Amino acid sequence: MAISSLVHLGSIMGGVRTVDQVGVEERAASLGKRSIKKASKVWALELAIRMMDLTTLEGADTPGKVAALCSKGIRPDPADPSVPSVAAICVYPAMIRPAVEHLRGTDVLVASVATAFPSGQTFLDVKLAETKEAVAAGADEIDMVIDRGAFLSGDYQKVYDEIVAIKEAAGAAHLKVILETGELGTYDNVRRASVLAMTAGADFIKTSTGKINPAATPPVTLVMMEAIRDFHRETGRAVGLKPAGGIRTAKQAVQYLVLLYETLGPEWMTPERFRIGASSLLNDCLMQLAKERTGAYQSGDYFTLD
Amino acid sequence: MPDRVEVRKTYKLYLGGEFVRSESGRSYQPAADVNIPRGSRKDLRDAVRVARGAFAGWAGKTAMNRGQVLYRAAEMLDGRRQQFIAELGGGRRAGREVDAAVEAFIWYAGWTDKLAQVAGTVNPVAGPYFNFTIPEPTGVVGVVAPDEPALAGLVLRIAPALAGGNTVVALASEKSPLPALTLGEVLATSDFPPGVVNVLTGFRKELLPWLASHMDVNAIDASGCSREELTAVEEAAAANVKRVVKPNGRRARLTPQAVTDLMEMKTVWHPIGV
User: Fold this and answer.
1) Which of A290, A292, A216 is nearest to A260 (CA)?
2) Nearest CA to CA, how far is A93 from chain B (Å)?
3) For residue B265, what is the DSSP state?
4) A242 included as an active-site residue
């Protein structure tokens, strides 16, 4: 595999287009200004909730906290059963079992970060073992991080091989590949890393761990969307996208949906192909939905503290 | 007029410690040749958001520190005495109104670190408890300023609210908003942390319903409201049981009750001998 994939990879990475920085920032900014109101807003907010990977990735996570988060993910608004469940609960590997237990019998999936999240700076064997254990513990989706050290030093092959190996270790579980765009430096690098991850077999590419600033931004997400669009045109394979980190308000979430619709089109407007990684976003979506329902601006006092 | 180019002023809302145009871009002319920003419900929403964000910091300051900031507001206001007199139409009456506003800031500055002693109580209870009651700030307070007096009416409402540790979203008089906007410039230079006090101008009927129904506003000083407005405010305020301070038909006076009206009394049962 090594020789042929090396040649293959070289031609692919050499063919990656450069990104027009000014153009991409302007387009992301102009699409961010679109105003979505009333019924469309409610529809968008509910879609955003259905696409949400409700996340807790703290050293202080406990089984109890994860259980509370799961309950919230299953039924975000206790007073309103019409509010849909989130797509998945995203946790650390040690919290997979409590999450699986609490989500049994529901459509909410369990996503786990793996591969020495968030830095990824450990041995491949450890990463593979962690991935396998996570899947064995019941994770439906694996969020891995790429080796940014290798990527930034130009060792694309190492990054590629690692993704291929993790993909194999993950088996049937969905693989989301975190590029950590905040550490990649340029849009060109983001596009290159996107193509690399998709070629290596990623089911989803994901912007960030949420542990680094900047995390997801509209222009970076747009660059990744365009990479997905072009990859789909060339290979016919549809790869999903997950912006994560820094998306705290319903307004931001709707802006990402506008970006998605305008770049990848309606086929990507589904939780199978688009996710939003967030924690405090859910409450803001609920507050906006309540505002649309009651006509009054809402207060955080009446929503759960997570 | 000095022999130089005329400096025409753009009046702006005071929101989150900044001077901004209305997000709607609208303005109105309460008098000839003066454009006042016509704030929208989204400006109001933004104001409440920043006021909520500023609340913990302001309420957490020491009472003495809050008093110093209020005192500085008096200093800044006094420094602009002539400007306020001109904006209030000039004359002795305007001068007296500015004096009343300065006095109000100083009076309530003095109350900040005395209120808990005067309004708080130690309660005799039939059990092994040390039982005491202390006033605590309510949260975000909406202040609806009366049309008359345009400056002192507003200051006599916001000063007690701020003295108690609340943050404020004030709706200026629709008819004479200019002194309120200038007051914003006074407040901006008085060491209030951004968002602690916000001044909006615009049409009362466009802003008041949203302020009254806002779930994140904990109290409304409605003393500038008409009878019909008050009814609507009280109905909308019921959703989150806002404290509503009603107009009493008289001009505001200096009284510590104006502060406690916008505070919550907390009673603590502290066990003895455990």
Assistant:
1) A216
2) 35
3) E
4) yes
Of residues A96, A66, A266, A62, the one with CA closest to residue A173? A96
In a domain, B1, yes or no: no
Beta-bridge mates of residue B165: none
pLDDT of A3 > 60? The answer is: no
User: What is the ipTM, given to two decimal places?
Assistant: 0.89
Of A294, A295, A297, the CB nearest to B216: A297
Cα distance from A302 to chain B (closest Cα, Å)? 9
Q: Report yes or no: B56 and B105 within 8 Å, Cβ to Cβ.
A: no
Check if B220 contacts A (Cβ < 8 Å): no
- Residue A1: the pLDDT is 46
The stretch B1-30 carries a mean pLDDT of 93
B28 located within any domain: no
B141 is a domain residue: yes
Q: Is the pLDDT of residue B127 over 50?
A: yes
Name the minimum distance, in Å, from the CA of A297 to any CA of chain B: 5
pLDDT in tens, A93-118: 999 999 999 999 999 999 999 999 99
B51 in Cβ contact with B169 (< 8 Å): yes
Number of domains composing chain B: 1
The matching CATH number, chosen from 3.10.180.10, 3.30.70.380, 3.40.30.10, 3.20.20.70, for A2-295 is 3.20.20.70
Mean pLDDT of A126-132: 98
Provide the domain limits for residue B60: 13-23+34-271
Q: Is the pLDDT of residue A67 over 60?
A: yes
Beta strands in A57-203 (DSSP E): 88-91, 109-113, 141-145, 174-178
Comparing CA positions, the residue from B11, B9, B7 lying closest to residue B37 is B11
Residue A274 DSSP label: B
The reply to whether A127 belongs to the active site is no
The radius of gyration of chain B's CA atoms, rounded to the nearest angstrom, is 19
- The CATH number assigned to the domain holding B264 equals 3.40.605.10
pLDDT value at position B141? 98
Whether the pLDDT of residue B184 is over 80: the answer is yes
Q: Please give the backbone phi and psi of residue B98, each rounded to the nearest 5 degrees, phi first.
A: -65, -40
- B11 and A CB contact within 8 Å: no
Per-residue pLDDT averaged across A194-217, rounded?
96
Listed by start position, the domains of chain A span 2-295
Q: Is A37 part of the annotated catalytic residue set?
A: no
Please name which of B162, B182, B169 lies closest in space to residue B143, comparing C-alpha atoms.
Answer: B169
- Tokens 């365009």 map to which residue? A226
Q: Which chain B positions have a beta carbon within 8 Å of A301's beta carbon?
A: 215-216
B214 touching A (Cβ < 8 Å): yes
Confidence of residue A7 (pLDDT cuts 50, 70, 90): low
